[in-house]
Give the backbone structure.
Amino acid sequence: MGRNRGFSLLELLIALGILTVAFAALAQLSAAAMKADRHNRHKTAALHLAQEKLEILKGIPFDELTSEWEGPLTLETFSVSFDRETTVNKDPQRRLAEVTVRVYWSYPSGGPSRFRVELSTRLAA
C-alpha cells in the first residue's frame, strides 16, 4: 500500500489557526504603531509652538514681558487644538527673566486627559 502525499484536514486547520494568531498580533502591533506615530506628531507640533513663542519673547523688551494663556490654537494639519501657557518670573535687580512655555493638548477620542510639553529659558535685558 502506498502512502498518500499531501496535507490532512487536521494539518490544514492547525496551519490556519497559526496564521490567524499571527495576523491578529500583526494587526494589534500596527494599531499601536499608528497611535504612537499620531502622538509623536502632536508632540512635535507642540514643541514647535513652544519654540515659536520663545523666539517671539526674545524680541520683546524686558519691561513688557508678561505671563499669558493662549488657546485654543489650531494647526491645519491636526485634528486637536493646543493651549499655550507662558510664565514669566522676573528678577528686576539682575534684569533677568526666567521664561517657561507649556503647550497642552488632548485627544477627542478619550484616553489620558491632557498631554504637555515644556520649554524654559532665561532672558536678559
About this structure: The domain at 9-124 is CATH 3.30.1300.30 (Pantoate--beta-alanine Ligase; Chain: A,domain 2). Residues 80 and 108 are 7 Å apart (CA to CA).
